[in-house]
Design goal:
The structure is a homodimer. Chain A is α/β, with parallel strands linked by helices. Chain A contains 8 helices and 6 strands; from the N terminus they run αααββαβαβαβαβα. In chain A, strands 4-3-5-6 form a 4-stranded parallel sheet. A two-stranded antiparallel sheet of chain A has the order 1-2. In chain A, strand 5, helix 7 and strand 6 form a beta-alpha-beta unit. In chain A, helix 1 crosses helix 2. The model of chain A has no long low-confidence stretch (mean pLDDT 92).
Chain lengths: 204, 204
Amino acid sequence: MMYYPSQLLERAVDEFAKLPGIGSKTAMRLVLHLLRQDTKAVEAFGQSIIRLRQEVKFCRVCHNISDNETCDICTNPRRDHSTVCVVENIQDVMAIEATQQYRGTYHVLGGVISPMDGIGPSDLQIQTLVERVQTGDIHEVILALSPTMEGDTTNFYLYRKLSESGVKISVIARGVAQNDELQYTDEVTLGRSIVNRTPFNISL
Amino acid sequence: MMYYPSQLLERAVDEFAKLPGIGSKTAMRLVLHLLRQDTKAVEAFGQSIIRLRQEVKFCRVCHNISDNETCDICTNPRRDHSTVCVVENIQDVMAIEATQQYRGTYHVLGGVISPMDGIGPSDLQIQTLVERVQTGDIHEVILALSPTMEGDTTNFYLYRKLSESGVKISVIARGVAQNDELQYTDEVTLGRSIVNRTPFNISL
């Protein structure tokens, strides 16, 4: 059993050690770091966590994280509300926003269909996507899920659910990544990149 | 610039990313983990950090971390208060306590003398150690600092400061560690372990 000189210390270390990827030694190091900081700074840290959990919302339209009932993207009149990009999670929204190449809206599924992990269609925000499309305001759904078997399964499921509505359904391009070395690219990716070749375009 | 769907999220991620060894991607992962936890659990986490910083004390005798003015070890009548083990930091106290081989008290210096880092004797709890020894209640001071140049410098400084009081001054043994392979042990350590050999004792 570990000796702790203070119960307050032990409790804080225990709490940090519950976080994924943080062991008890790292937790101790983080807590001792906080002990050396200004009281105000540590209070701000603690409060930021508590407030986040208490006050953060999920957008009622796209299920992205938000400070309000509807998120900044869904309420932004300069975005293209007829295009919906379907992603797995919040980080994917952030990654696509960082590219500055997309001006439409999103739909955060909350994962992909994965029978091995017990995740079925009803565990994801699929019904709400179908309802968004049924309004008739959506012209294109872009599927931007992981290029994995689970992602492909989910793409196929969504295609079946959405295709009868007549909405245009596209999927993000797969191919070799920028700066990839061809000799180390896997066969499936390289094969697809040849089959799905595009006309040479000097602007790319 | 990174896009954040929520200011609450951004603030929490920023706070986590201030911690040593936590980058913005890890911070994001930790914050999203907390978002999936129970509100009560997240409040407990935040409060444990705030309370630690607000309420934790440092023992007025040995400067170890403590929930009270004087720590558990310094107030424990079953500890040997005539022996003081001098260590650099709180983790060292915890490491020595974990061995269950020491029944004396401690003195936490708060570091070692390191001119390169601008740490001199006055930045450490050296004067309070001298005062503890001057009371005459201490019979032995055990120096348990890092086996580094800075640790050795500090040992030497403490020896000069304390020796005129007549207190017994000892230093923790240096030698090969349990399960070390001799061929990979550095020359200084291996050399010392031969010079400072001890009589064979079957109980060790």
